[in-house]
Predict the 3D structure of the following.
Amino acid sequence: MTSEPGLVNVANVLTVIRVLLIPVFVACLLAGGTGWRLAALVAFCVASLTDLLDGRLARRRGLVTDFGKIADPIADKALTGAALVTLSYLGELAWWVTAVIIVREVTVTALRFWVIRQGVIAASRGGKIKTMLQIIAISLYVLPGHFDLVRELFMGAAVVVTLVTGGDYVARAIRLRRAVQ
């Protein structure tokens, strides 16, 4: 008989570190100046790296916990949401972009709860591409310098993939609900 992994494990610690880095990232970004922008970029990249590592470690080492299943996606959305809201607050990113991405993420989270009794919808390849595009786009916006066209291209791609994968998630959730009724 296998035992449940403990709450305190490397995957969950990485998730908590990601959450703790969010206010550090926001404070650095709001401080202004090149040095603070670079510090914000480092905080965002380290936090994003913990996102990549925690899930892999949890699955490979059998460290999947109920805490991780809930905290990991919340930490991901909090990091992305904080970055988008802060960039929009600073006037560097259109508010409609922030709104579209946040509404999609809230909708997908609500759908997860709606179908939880029927099953779990696994992350799709498109969802992973969405996350990567969002991370790259946000990083380009945080990076000091004039990369306007590149920033806008990546953020545009991120918005399109965010919407497409959101629609796919809605369709899969509806199919899952119908299959069990």
Remarks:
- The two ends are 33 Å apart (CA to CA).
